[in-house]
Design brief:
heterodimer, A: five-stranded mixed sheet, globular, B: 303 residues, alpha+beta
Chain lengths: 241, 303
Amino acid sequence: MRGEKPKLVSEDGVRHDGRRLDELRPTRMEVGILSNASGSAYVEFGKTRVIAAVYGPREPPQRYMVLPHRAVLRCRYHMAPFSTDERKNPAPSRREIEISKVIREALEPVVMSEAFPRTSIDIFIEVISADGGTRTAALNAASLALADAGIPMRDLVAAVAVGKVNGYLVLDIDQVEDNYSEADMPVAMAPSLNMVTLLQLNGVLTPRDFSQAMNLALKGINEIYKLQKETLRNKYLVRVE
Amino acid sequence: MSVTPTSPDSIIPRLKAETLSTLVRKGVRADGRSLEDFRELKIITNYLPKADGSALVRLGDTQVLAGVKLELGSPYPDTPEEGVLVVSAEFVPTASPAFEPGPPDENAIELARVIDRVLREYGVIDTSKLVVVSGKKVWVVWADIYVLDHGGNLVDASAIATLAALLTTKIPKHTITENESVLVDKSSYAGPLPVVKKAVTVTIGKLGDSLIVDPTLEEEKVMDVKLIVGVGEDGSIAGLQKSGDGYLTFQEVEKAIELALKKGSELLSKITGSLSQLEVTSSRSAGAAPIEGRGSESSGGNA
């Protein structure tokens, strides 16, 4: 964004909301929050809140939409009209269409779709509150919902956005930071397999900045990955006893 | 909603797939290029008589037409002292058996949005120079990408075409009346569009363990994934987009970007070279009636 840039990071590296440069927002995760879905999850990063539901493997609504050797993945990222400052038109925007695509493509490498030929695995994501980093929160939720649905996966996918604000690289940028950022880079990985499954950059970075940003993202991703596993363990450990 | 591609056009015979990947593993391509070569590039600017700027790009078998139209419009409320850039793409059904008539699908939307981000974020156009009536009327730059023939690597061809079209865009003559209404005279021009920096994209494909530049359509069908890298003229990364169902390792990402930056600066100097050559020829042929005659061709050769 252009115009007057407010100072969002102080000299001693404290951000406008009191976070350090490499600190995530307060995070909450929960699985199994919906009764009808095969799997579901709720993920919160500060004021960003996202719900994901997984249906399937099931017969796809249209016959031509099947593949003989694997399941197809269907994914919709959608923002609720009340999730933003100005009401958001509920019709899918170009932005939402693109994000649905990159989220699906971020999950394709980990879902063992070859186990369910001729079926469809459907991932529905609703952003109920948007305060920056919604696509990464959505991906974290989708990954948890897939695991909650019992769909075999090679790994979980964990995601976070790194930004460049007032010349500083910051982890997990929020809306205010994004509005005045020089760069916004969402990254998703399957951490145990060293797979980068989503990578976007909106803005300009030097190659040196980029390397640092990737390492910062990796740090955040490892923290989120741990939280995701804890969340799943919390639900299923209780069940077993 | 985004769905795993199921079209039979995305299926390539297994034999062909094996041939292509075996070749790439040996460091060569089916068309004789090395892994890091672009195909032959041809740029024809001022291709269209009615557009304010246009370019036809041929990259191997791929053909992309970019047309720029300028219209007066309102600025965005949060940037009242800046003009507006809008990039859209159409994958017209002439281009491939896989393209259906209808509104742009997710691939066309992704392509347009990636190119839009690279041009916008790198500051290719100085939008502050597009204000006509302060805070009220600005030039809206409509850059429309028309994919005419799909021979692979649509993103890079489209980015080159868009940049070339913008570089040849002229702002129509206009006068502001007392009551702040603007009269536009499209028959003469006030000057060139303020393109102050150049950026392109370089798409790196991953085939097995190999990284390849400028994939053909056949290669794209067997590729696991691609990384689109925006490259600015000062060697910075002006945007990124991982696209496709596969993944890259942490190390592959760094390697791909390094390769893209190297190829991007080569590509940018090729474009600059071929467009400056052209200015001489295009001014000489200006005014010729047939479309082909108006265009001025230049070849970037193999990058």
